[in-house]
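Student:
Attend to each token:
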Amino acid sequence: MRPVAILLMGPTGAGKSELALELARRLPLEIVSVDSALVYRGMDIGTAKPDARTRAKVPHHLIDIRDAASAYSAGEFVRDAARAMQGIWSRGRHPLLVGGTMLYFHALTTGLAELPEADTGVRAAIDAQAATKGWASVHAELARVDPEAAVRIHHNDPQRIQRALEVHRLTGDTITRLQQERHPVIGTDGESAAEVVELALAPAQRSTLHATIALRLEAMMNAGFLDEVRLFYQRGDLSGEHPSMRAVGYRQLWEHLAGADSLERATEKALIATRQLAKRQLTWLRQRASARWFDSAHPLCAERVLEALSGGAFAGHAS
């Protein structure tokens, strides 16, 4: 029987963590976090990170693996998640991948192109060319070496133009061709070594999600979210531009501590940003043709998910 990987995806505030714990209580599962903020140590309140007691009851992976001053890429996530899944399968259990960082889910199921690292010298040369001749001229060069990329990339998008040309100058190959050579770790196309089950969790009414997000943020503030951000602000080795501090909620409270906003205004901005994030997550999820949707607000949601998982590798496990 092929190993199984369950993807539990949903917008922030949909109740993914609670459902994951219930599933792990009743099925042979270990949780793999798919969250770009949970990887950072000390970011606990603002990420609704499972506490130590919860993680002692149910194994969790890819939590607290980076300092807040470090970057963590989608490529690193794919590598770490693949290693975690292999370990889980070797123990006769199945990975339950839970989170809302849709880029990570995408990278895991479609693969990442093996592109060269950024080269400051090449980028400086392209910037100099653009300063002299304009980005339209640089875009015209891209059209000569990689016509397909030039069609996809607007002539007023200097960052992507630069990256496409940089890849060509470093490798002699086009970013278009390199991006076609993707090797997913898991997938639903039948070629993956694992059977993949995609679950999408969200309340049927968006107003329900908005209300939950507001209550969740209020609870975080009451639990000391501002003090948590202040500890990072006072470290001295972080800025508001670090990937960790750009996370929703952290960014807005950082700006308050820097004097840019009142606490009331920063909290309002955090609420708006969280709702916008949830909207983007839902938009992405609707494109997942293989995902089976469940209403997180339904009182029998967990039972319905368990019923959906009751066959195959999980036959006889649910209780």
User: Anything to note?
Assistant: The radius of gyration is 22 Å. The chain has a mean pLDDT of 93. The longest helix spans residues 263-285.
